[in-house]
């Protein structure tokens, strides 16, 4: 298998199975778009190639968890507060948040803040 030096994944690699394919490696042979038979060695080589690309910096690797931006500060995760509510209250909160163009979380944060300020 050829090791790729460009950005990963290369434009010339595409694995395609038709919708009727059932993968049974003992019976069926599967080929990539260039006609190379996909075997265990092919897969092992591809995985090794990806690891090399990561090690060489040719593949961007996320350094932080996905999700929403931190409310605390950049590079940190915001603490979470969770609690249970009756379904009816949840539905009212969803309707109010939608009416105000906010998420339920934003609405809850504001309500929590106002409650704590009121002391």
Descriptive overview:
This is Ribbon-helix-helix protein CopG domain-containing protein. InterPro entries: Ribbon_hlx_hlx. It comes from Planotetraspora thailandica. The protein has 119 residues and is mainly alpha-helical. Helices cover 38% and strands 0% of the residues. It is built from 3 helices and no strands. It is elongated. The mean pLDDT is 78.
- SSE sequence, one letter per element: HHH
Q: Tally of extended strands?
A: 0
| Class from secondary-structure proportions | mainly alpha
Helix content: 25-40%
* Rg (C-alpha, Å): 25 Å
Largest sheet: none
Q: Tell me, briefly, the overall form.
A: elongated
Mean pLDDT: 78
Highlighted features:
single chain, mainly alpha, 3 helices, Ribbon-helix-helix protein CopG domain-containing protein, Ribbon_hlx_hlx
């Amino acid at each position: 298998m050829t090791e790729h030096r460009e950005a990963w994944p290369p434009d010339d690699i595409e694995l395609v199975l038709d919708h009727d394919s059932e993968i049974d490696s003992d019976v069926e042979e599967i080929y990539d778009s260039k006609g190379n038979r996909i075997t265990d060695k092919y897969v092992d080589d591809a995985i090794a190639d990806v690891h090399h690309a990561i090690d060489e910096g040719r593949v961007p690797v996320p350094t932080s968890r996905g999700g929403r931006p931190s409310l605390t500060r950049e590079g940190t995760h915001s603490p979470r507060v969770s609690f249970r509510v009756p379904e009816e209250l949840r539905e009212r909160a969803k309707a109010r948040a939608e009416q105000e163009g906010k998420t339920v979380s934003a609405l809850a944060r504001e309500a929590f803040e106002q409650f704590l300020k009121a002391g």
